[in-house]
Specification:
It is built from nine helices and nine strands. A nine-stranded mixed β-sheet has the order 1-2-4-3-5-6-7-8-9, sandwiched between helices. β1 and β2 form a beta hairpin. The radius of gyration is 23 Å and the shape is globular. It starts with 7 loop residues before the first helix and ends with a strand. This is Triacylglycerol lipase.
């Protein structure tokens, strides 16, 4: 529309707009400008993370120095060790959940790796070693709640380090718990269920980005039994499915190719919890093809690229 051809009615409305409305618009504009300046003045956590490379992502630890903190009074779960970046800034939180008969040792390899790439990670021990997937899902939620509370409470090492975004990684029944948390708790925005196990469940309602990591020779939770049907049913989610050689223990500490698994998990959570698109090429496109097409490394790969 040509601005010079406004109707007379429009002109009258503009001229007679109440002074109160004019003042309100001015106030909103001022507040918006202030918010913009505050946002610009706060450096994103991603600024502390240098550009990733294949070599840096496949190293045992990332570029940031880390420290650990033992949760003094776990609420709703058995135990918790927080690994966090020493750098200033706020970061996404990630809950690690073990499988049946598992302990924090199950995913201990992943905690410092994620933290050194810009995450605050709580590695959880369950209430009992035999807790079922439903209970592990609730404990993921409880650990996430307490992690965020620690970030908002003064007097502990992670105070001010949580930005309110949550993700989760779990193994076996813990992987089933990750799926339950994604389905039932909207605070969790991305998840990595590894060799996930949860019989008779429908996760078609999950819309958050999900990375299924499964093991080709898994006699307990083969991808065809759980992860693949879930992947197929989740029609509204961004998804990644990678099957690698090994048995049910392949995602655990001391098993499997941790250089590759770590690169994929760090890249997936960096992309979807921090919106850091620098990590996307390691999951989609030519850069990842060396992994995807290596049959000794990957026995099945599915995705919803391009994300």
């Amino acid at each position: 529309m040509d601005p010079s051809r406004r109707s007379a009615n429009t002109t009258v409305q503009l001229r007679t707009r109440p002074r109160a409305m004019t003042a309100l618009i001015a106030l909103v504009t001022t507040l918006g400008l202030a918010l913009t300046l505050l946002t610009a003045a706060a450096p994103p956590a991603a600024a502390a993370v240098p550009d990733p490379t294949t070599a840096s992502l496949e190293a045992a630890n990332g570029p940031l120095a880390t420290a650990t903190y033992t949760v003094p009074r776990p609420t709703g779960y058995g135990s918790g060790t927080v690994t966090y970046p020493r750098n200033s800034g706020s970061y996404p939180g990630v809950v690690l959940m073990p499988g049946y008969q598992g302990t924090q040792q199950n995913l201990q390899w992943l905690a410092p790796r994620l933290a050194s790439w810009g995450f605050v990670v709580i590695n959880v021990g369950t209430n009992t070693l035999t807790d079922d997937p439903a209970s592990r899902g609730r404990q993921i939620t409880a650990a996430g709640t307490q992690l965020l509370a620690l970030g908002n409470a003064p007097g502990n090492p992670v105070s001010g380090k949580l930005n309110g975004t949550l993700g989760a990684v779990g193994h076996s029944m813990g992987g089933g718990g990750v799926m339950a948390a994604l389905r039932d708790d909207p605070r969790f925005r991305a998840g990595v269920p590894t060799a996930p196990y949860y019989p008779n469940q429908n996760f078609s309602a999950v819309t958050d980005p999900t990375f299924f990591l499964t093991c080709q020779s898994d006699p307990v939770a083969h991808g065809n039994s759980y992860a693949v049907p879930w992947y197929t049913s989740m029609s509204r989610a961004e998804k990644l499915y990678i099957e690698v050689p090994g048995d049910h223990l392949c995602p655990m500490t001391g098993s499997g190719n941790k250089a590759k698994q770590g690169k994929w998990i760090v890249s997936f959570l960096s992309l979807w919890l921090r919106a850091d698109t620098r990590f996307s090429p390691f999951l989609c496109g030519p850069v990842r093809d060396a992994d995807k097409n290596n049959t000794s490394l990957v026995t099945r790969w599915m995705d919803t690229c391009r994300f």
